[in-house]
């Protein structure tokens, strides 16, 4: 650190830049939107049963926390369980598709084709088979998140170039070594693209499942609040779901950056 | 000018380290149908010999290298190494591929060490060797750099270190110095000759540069335009160790001139304008 004589404009600029570096610009935009929302509702006297102000929603989250929290935990565990199972099924399946001609030709096309079936349409059926408990929700979460993981993992595992395989063979690498030291690391960026996409879809899956038949969860709360025209309570639940979804996405993205340090991170500030 | 066919270029079995016998290669079923990449080629390489392959782009040099390594199979003919027929990937050699083929998820040092990892070598020893190879090619300080953080020439140098790490008796190099600036190139040529002298290594070296081929080689193999065959084999009778100044030697320049003439008669160079 060099000690340069203070020039106040320069310093103020630095402080702003430092705050700017910690708080991403998008958050400022969000803050502006919330303020605008608050202002409109207050100034125009919009009644709460049409559009509650952010302050009223915040109050609702506080007052209703004792019911929001346990239901959020239910939704969260549906997402976590379904997503984990999806990963556990999808990744080995992708490996088998890449390594086996039979799987590739007899199973993979069916997996791709099955995506044209709208999962919402299947949900009531699952209810009939698995009842009202956690099981149908987990199954729907799996169905939603499994596909992008399979597709992206297959693409990633196929991305190994012939040159890399020549190199491997010239070193006398065996099948295990080719998989662990060449194919898998080469596939990681693509696998994570699938994992990231799947986080968003798994949250959607859990909420859809709860809409269709549940007596717990944030989706259920939204439905009940809707029936009672309790808009603020609906917003409270929506915000909680969003927080869950964003955190989940954030965790996977963080993991991605940790596990794939060689990848250039996309620059969001326009300087890159 | 003698055209090499059949076994007339072959030396007695006992002295040949690598024996290429009437080897040809046709690539089948591409979009352009069958491509004849290599006409029947015969060549013997002695142990410890430095042989360069000179030829215009697309004449089948890389194809010949792939056949030697056993990574591709010949359409006809045989390749023997120490009398043993090559019929699958041969791991008892080092290859510098035309593209550097570095793994983007490994730093420079780890890319070099891949060679030792795959072969199950002693990693402590390998690391010391890898570091000294990297310093030989002036990459000290870049051990942890990912390939995307290296220039093309630096990447190629890492791949050279990788090919040398396990001290292979036979080294196949496909235009290894193509991406380097002239000075680094000069230095690496000298380093390579030094290593060859120390290790008694046999080198099969592909290049586009006539002076480079003359400077490094015991013999220079001249190939015709595609589909390639061997047009001429020139013995380079210059003393070793060779120094950079030797490139002004009249004997050196006369080799370069006569090889240039050969390529002119092959239609590779056209001087009229
Ligand atoms: N896998 C392949 N499939 C079809 N054709 C190929 C394949 N590999 C090489 N060829 C063809 O074989 C010929 C010889 O290719 P090769 O790579 O051996 O040339 P080269 O002498 O190494 O050229 P360069 O100096 O440009 O590297 C070319 O015409 C090329 O189109
Ligand atoms: Mg080539």
Automatic annotation (TrEMBL), chain A:
Subcellular location: Cell membrane
Membrane spanning stretches: 21-40, 79-99, 106-132, 138-157, 191-214, 234-255
GO biological process, one term: transmembrane transport
Membrane topology of the entry: Multi-pass membrane protein
Source domain of life: Bacteria
Domain ABC transmembrane type-1, first and last residues per copy: 72-250
InterPro entries per record: MetI-like (IPR000515), MetI-like_sf (IPR035906)
A GO CC annotation given for this chain: plasma membrane
Pfam families according to UniProt: BPD_transp_1 (PF00528)
PANTHER family: ABC TRANSPORTER PERMEASE PROTEIN HI_0355-RELATED (PTHR30151:SF20), ALKANE SULFONATE ABC TRANSPORTER-RELATED, MEMBRANE SUBUNIT (PTHR30151)
Family to which the UniProt record says this protein belongs: Belongs to the binding-protein-dependent transport system permease family.
Protein name: NitT/TauT family transport system permease protein/putative hydroxymethylpyrimidine transport system permease protein
Annotated organism of origin: Celeribacter persicus
Lineage, highest ranks first: Bacteria, Pseudomonadati, Pseudomonadota, Alphaproteobacteria, Rhodobacterales
TrEMBL record, chain B:
InterPro entries: AAA+_ATPase (IPR003593), ABC_transporter-like_ATP-bd (IPR003439), ABC_transporter-like_CS (IPR017871), ABC_transporter_ATP-bind (IPR050166), P-loop_NTPase (IPR027417)
Key words of the record: ATP-binding, Nucleotide-binding, Transport
GO MF annotation list: ATP binding; ATP hydrolysis activity
Keyword Transport: yes
Keyword field contains Transport: yes
Domain ABC transporter residues, every copy: 18-250
Family: Belongs to the ABC transporter superfamily.
The protein, known as: NitT/TauT family transport system ATP-binding protein
Organism listed in the record: Celeribacter persicus
